[in-house]
Amino acid sequence: MAQPTTSSRQNTVRQPTPDRNRQNAPRPSRDNGSAGRLREPRPSFDWGAALDSWFSDQRSTLTLGVLLMLLAVGLFIAFISYLITGQADQSVVGAAFSQPLAESGPETRNWVGLVGAFVAHVFVFRWFGVGALTLPIIMFLAGYKLTLRRELLPLSRATAGLLFLSVWSSLLLGYIVLVTDSAETDSIWCGGIGYEFNVALYSLFGWGNLAFIGFVLFLFVVYFFDVRNIKLPSFSAPNLAGGVRPKSPKRPDDTLQSYEESEADYEETVPDYTAPVDFSHSVPVPEEAISSPDSPLNDAHHQEASVPELIAKTTGVTLTIKNRESVTDDPVAEPEELGATPAPTFEPDPFEDDDLVATHGLYDPTLDLPQYQYPTNDLLTEYQNTRKAQVSEDELTANKERIETTLRNFGIEIDSIQASIGPTVTLYEIVPAKGVRISKIKSLEDDIALNLSALGIRIIAPMPGMGTIGIEVPNKNREMVSMRSVITSDIFTSSKFDLPIVLGKTISNEIYVADLAKMPHLLMAGATGQGKSVGLNVLLTSLIYKKHPSQLKLVLVDPKKVELTLFNKLERHFLAKLPDSEEPIITDTKKVVNTLNSLCIEMDNRYNLLKDGGCRNLKEYNAKFVKRRLNPDKGHRFLPYIVLIVDELADLMMTAGKEVEQPIARLAQLARAIGIHLVVATQRPSVNVITGLIKANFPARLSFKVTSKIDSRTILDTGGAEQLVGMGDMLLSSNSDIIRLQCPFVDTNEIEDLCDYVGNQRGYDEAYALPEFIGDDGGQSDDKDVDLDNRDPMFDEAARLIVIHQQGSTSLIQRKLKLGYNRAGRLIDQLEAAKIVGAFEGSKARDVLVQDLQMLEEILKRLKGD
Ligand SMILES: Nc1ncnc2c1ncn2[C@@H]1O[C@H](COP(=O)(O)OP(=O)(O)OP(=O)(O)O)[C@@H](O)[C@H]1O
C-alpha cells in the first residue's frame, strides 16, 4: 500500500514556509514535550509582489503609460528645439546654477523652457547629439504599450535598435565634425560622446576611426538581423506587373489573427510579396503553379496570398479588388490558368523560412483579443478575520499530553513531540523512543483517535524521509483559506506552469500549486456537501486568472445542470462546444457522448498536426507555430489547451455507461501530449463509476471527505479520506504520494463577478468549435430538401475552396470564409445536392466529387443557366 507523505513532487511548488524548511522554525520547543509558543516569522515587505500587483492594476499602467507618452512628446519637442536654438541656450544652461532661476527662465529660447533646455543640453549636447531623439521615441513606444496594451513596434527590438542608432550616429557624426574641423558650430549634432571618442582615437588611428565605426555597424547588422536567417535568393524578389496587397496593414503581428479587425480594403498596386497577408483568407495553390523553379509563386511568402492574388501573379492579369468578398465574382478566375490538377500539399514546405519571423515577428496568439484584460484581484472577496488558524496554546498542550498519555498507555514511549499548525489540522510529529516499532503506532490509530475524541485523526507512520510519526488532529477553529489569498500569492502569480491550479494550503501553511498539464488528468471524489463544487470552481478560477482566452478552452459537462451554469458567460472567451449545440455547457447525456467523441476527433486531428509538424507534443508544436515554422494553409494553427471538466461522472455512467467510459479512458490515455486534460468529479467513488479502466488512466486523484473507507480506497487506493473533516479538507494522491490540503474557498458571487468581468469583454464571435461528431442516430440535418435555385451567395466560392483543397469539410468553409457553423452547414448541404461533395460519413470528411476547377466551373455555369 502506498505510504502517505507530505513531501513535494515534481510538478508542484510550495510556498517555502519557515517550519517546513526547518530554518526559522516557528515550532514549539522540544523541551519535555511541552507545548511551545508558535512564533510568526516577522513579515518583511515584499517589493516584488508590490510591484507586480501595482503593474497588474490597469489604473497604474494607464497612468504611467500616458505620463510616458506626454514626457516623450515634451522631450521630443525640447530636443528638436535645442537642435535649432541650442547654441543660444548653452550659456543660459551654464549660468542656470549661478544666477537666480527667475532670470534664467525668461532668457531660455527652448520651446519647453528652462527644463527643456537643460534636459536637452545633457542628452543632445553632452551625450548623443541628434541621436538623442531616439530616447523620446523609445519612451513613447513604452507608454503606448502600457496604455493600450499592444505594441506599435516590438518594444525590446525597437529599443535595442534605437539605442544603437543613437550611439552609432553620435560616433559617425563625431568623426565628420572632427575631420571637417567644425566643432565650434556643429558639435551639437554629434553630442559629446561621439566627438570625444573620435578626438581620443583620431591621433592613434586616423581614418581607422571611420573603419571602426563602419565595423560596428556591420556587427550590429549581423547580429540584430541575424544574418543566418537571410536567404540570399530572396533579395531579388520577382518584379511582376500587377498584383494586390493590403493597404497599410495595422500591425505585422496581426497577419494570422483578425478576429477583431475589420476586413482591410485592397487596392491595386505594385506587388509586395513581403507584405503581411491575412492567412485566414488564403488557400493553397495547385502544385504546378508553385513547383516550377521560375514560377513567381515559388517563394515562401506567396503561399499567403489568396486565390485571385495568385492568379494575378501567375497570369499577369491585374485584379482590382476593393473587398475580398467580391473575389469569386471576378471572371479572371479561369481554371485553365491555374493548371488542372488540384494538389493541396506542398513539398517541401516553403514555410520553413525564418524571414517570416524577421518580417512579422513571432506569432502572438493573444493578439486574437489584444484588448483582453486578465481578471483583477479585487473581483475576489477579501475575507477578514479568517487569516490564521486559531489554535490556542492550551489546545496544543492538551492535545500533546493526550497523545503522550494514550501512547504511554499502550506501552509506547516517545522522545519528543512537536506541532505544526495548519489551516485545518495540526500535525504533531512524534519521535518514538528507541526500539518502538512504527507498525505498532499505526495499528493504534483508532484508539488514539478515540482518546483524542476528535474526528479526522490521520496517522502518518513513518513521515517520509524522517524517522518520525505524524498525527494530524483537526483544529477546533479552522482557518478559511480564501481564494484571493492564494491567487495573489507569489507562488501562484509567478508560476510558470502551463496550467497552474492552486489547490490550497498544506499542513504547514504552504500554498500548493500544481500543474494540471503534468498531472495530466485529475479524478475528484467527495461525498455531497464536502466541497467538490467549490474545488472545481477553484480550479477553474485558477486557470482563468492565469490564461488568455486564446491559450485555453474549457469543455464543461454538468449533468446536474446547476453547478457550472455561471461559466456560461465565458462562452465567447474560454468555452468550447460542438458546432451545432446551442448551450455552451453540456448537460444532456447524449450531447456528452457526442462531445467526448468529438474531443477524440480533436485529439486525432491534433496528433496528425503534430506528426505533420514533426513535433512530439503540444508545447513543441505551438513553439514552432509561434516561430512561424508551420504553415496555416496546411491546417496548422495555434493549439489552445483544452480542459474538459465533468461534474458528476456517476450520473453519466449510470445513463450511458460504456459510451462514456470508453472515450474518457481513451482521452485520458492519449490526450496529454496534445494538450487535452480531463478533470472528472464524482460524488460516488464506487467501482461501477470509477471503473478500473478510468482509474488506471488518472494517476492524480483528489478526494474530499467520503462516507466510507471503501470509497476512500476506491479513489485513493488507501483509507484516510473518510476521516477528513469536510469543508474543503482533502487528500491529493499523485505518484503514490498523499498530501493533505485545505482547499481554498471561492463563493458563487465571486465566480459571478469573475465571469461577468471576463464575459463583458470583447470575445471571439462564437465559442471554440469542436469537430463535428454525429453519433449512430445521425442527429442533424433533419431536412435534407435543398433548393439549389436558392443557393447561398457564397456557394461558388465555397465550391472552389472545397475543390482546390479536395477536402469536403464544413469547418474548412467556416474557417476560410469566416462563416458561422450553420451557414457553412447549409453550404455543404447545397454542395452535396449539387454533387460537388459526397454524402456525410460520420467523423470522416466528405468525398469531393469534382476533381478540378475546370469541371467545377462547368457545373457552376450549368447551375447558373438553370
Ligand atoms: N474550501 C472550503 N472552505 C470552506 N468552506 C467550504 C469549502 N468548500 C466547501 N465549503 C462549504 O461546504 C459547502 C458545500 O460545498 P460544495 O457545494 O462544494 O459541496 P459539494 O461537494 O459540491 O456538494 P454537492 O456534491 O452536493 O454539490 C459550501 O457551501 C461551503 O459552505
UniProtKB/TrEMBL annotation:
One of its GO terms (molecular function) is ATP binding. This is DNA translocase FtsK. ATP binds at G526, A527, T528, G529, Q530, G531, K532, S533. SUPFAM superfamilies: P-loop containing nucleoside triphosphate hydrolases (SSF52540), Winged helix' DNA-binding domain (SSF46785). Residues 508-713 form the FtsK domain. Residues 1-15 have a biased composition (Polar residues). The chain crosses the membrane at residues 62-84, 124-146, 158-179, 199-225. The keyword Cell division applies. It is a multi-pass membrane protein. InterPro entries: FtsK/SpoIIIE/SftA (IPR050206), FtsK_4TM (IPR025199), FtsK_alpha (IPR041027), FtsK_dom (IPR002543), Ftsk_gamma (IPR018541), P-loop_NTPase (IPR027417), WH-like_DNA-bd_sf (IPR036388), WH_DNA-bd_sf (IPR036390). The keyword Ribosomal protein does not apply. One of its GO terms (cellular component) is plasma membrane. Keywords: ATP-binding, Cell cycle, Cell division, Cell membrane, Chromosome partition, DNA-binding, Membrane, Nucleotide-binding, Transmembrane, Transmembrane helix. One of its GO terms (biological process) is cell division. It holds the Pfam family FtsK_alpha. Belongs to the FtsK/SpoIIIE/SftA family.
